Amino acid sequence: MSLLTLLPFIVLIGAMFLMTRSAKKKQQQAIEMRNQMQPGSGVRTIGGMYATVKEVNEDTVLLDAGPGVDLMFAKNSIGAVLTDDEYNRIVHGIEHDLKSDADIVPDDASSLTGTDESSDAAAASDDKPVDFGKKDTAGEPADAADEATAGDQPKKTDGGSEAK
Predict the structure, then answer these.
(1) Is residue 57 within 8 Å of 101, Cβ to Cβ?
(2) What is the mean predicted confidence (pLDDT) over 77-83?
(3) What's the pLDDT band for 109 if we cut at 50, 70, 90?
(4) Which of the four pLDDT bands, split at 50, 70 and 90, describes residue 133?
(5) pTM as predicted
(6) Which residues neighbour 63 within 8 Å (Cβ) at sequence distance 6 or greater?
(7) Is the Cα torsion angle 87, 88, 93, 96 positive or negative in sign?
(8) Predicted pLDDT at 98
(9) Contact at 8 Å (CB) between 47 and 2?
(10) CA 86 from centroid of its chain's CA atoms
(11) CA pair distance 77, 46, nearest whole angstrom
């Protein structure tokens, strides 16, 4: 066998190696994240439930989902460990990281447009018709000129041998 016939197999094995390597890295990061959980930190489960960690065991986590609601979850079911600011923003709606000098998006677009008195005066004094660059021929109105030229042109047909 030549090297050229083995090349596709070598490329395929290399691609599989790279894919499994990145998947293992992600798994290791998830394990480290779950091991860093401490009581009092906010978490999101893989099902999308937000709760506070009450107790961490070897394979399980006791979560406080609300007043008087304690739930036992497997450690593998924790999707993300959240920072305190992120947890409070999502669960309680508390924004701690708002900066007073940051740009704030207005509720309506009226404050985005500047009110110029000169542009208001120009808009109010639009007595002249707007010239779109179309010139009338021989002083006739535009409609009359169109009707006159339309009668001089041959009519179009729907098909037949002449159309080709």
Answers:
(1) no
(2) 89
(3) confident
(4) confident
(5) 0.47
(6) 43, 45, 51, 52, 53, 54, 70, 71, 72, 73
(7) negative
(8) 52
(9) no
(10) 20
(11) 6
